[in-house]
Amino acid sequence: MLEALSYDFIQNALIAGLLVSMASGIIGSLIVVNRMVFLAGGIAHTAYGGIGVAVYFSLPIFLGASIFAVLAALLIASITLKHRERMDTFIGLMWAVGMAVGVVLIDITPGYQADFMSYLFGSILAVSQSDLWFMGGLLAVIIIIIIFWYRDILAVSYDSEYANLRGINVPFFYTLILILSALTVVVAIKVVGLILVIALLTIPVYIAERLSNTLFSMMILSGIFSSVFTIMGLWFSYEYDISSGASIILISAGSLFLFLGVQRVLK
């Protein structure tokens, strides 16, 4: 694959993979410890409505998907904070409506030939310079927020009642985590697509969780594992001419099964 690095699109794909992997490692850790996996899945599929809006109005895909995903995150936060018993129903509804809106808007866009596979399974080889700036900016924002509010986010993630007693604004940080999750999901869609995005956010985290004693170390290890899986997946995709998103997830899943097997043998 070394000769492939001379191509700009391969370089962009590699940089994008590393940026998204680090963001996914950090946010994926928060998603797992806050038990938000189902919520993140709902946001991912709702974001497809934003892709449809962007296509229909000729807007940047990231812009449309990000706005739609953030609005979905705000709505989900409002619902889950006030009506947690109805959460499954609302998430399922938003999931379906978001997908339906996206499909309809793409269908009625004049002259647009939809490449559904790129949205469902990622199109990392089509990453542009503007996409890289967006991904890099998001990762920078995530890192700054984690550094600045780490103790508060840690308290909210593991014991929200204790955090509330300490005077921490639990609804604010809960909503903030969901918004960051929404934006991370949007950039991860470019790498692995809607169908596989939850795997990217959870598989490396699951392995890291078994090897970590703190949330911070879990984030670091998750980012490292995700980066390694992404690089290996890109190499596998290049060598065998198959979908990069699916390759990344297969490498991740295979690594997880190998890890579990080794862990069982060592016990």
From TrEMBL:
Top-rank taxon, per record: Bacteria
Signal peptide: none
InterPro entries registered for this protein in UniProt: ABC_BtuC-like, ABC_TroCD
Predominant localisation class: membrane
Subcellular localization: Cell membrane; Membrane
Assigned GO CC terms: ATP-binding cassette (ABC) transporter complex
Family according to the record: Belongs to the ABC-3 integral membrane protein family.
Protein name per the record: Zinc ABC transporter, inner membrane permease protein ZnuB
Organism (species): uncultured Sulfurovum sp
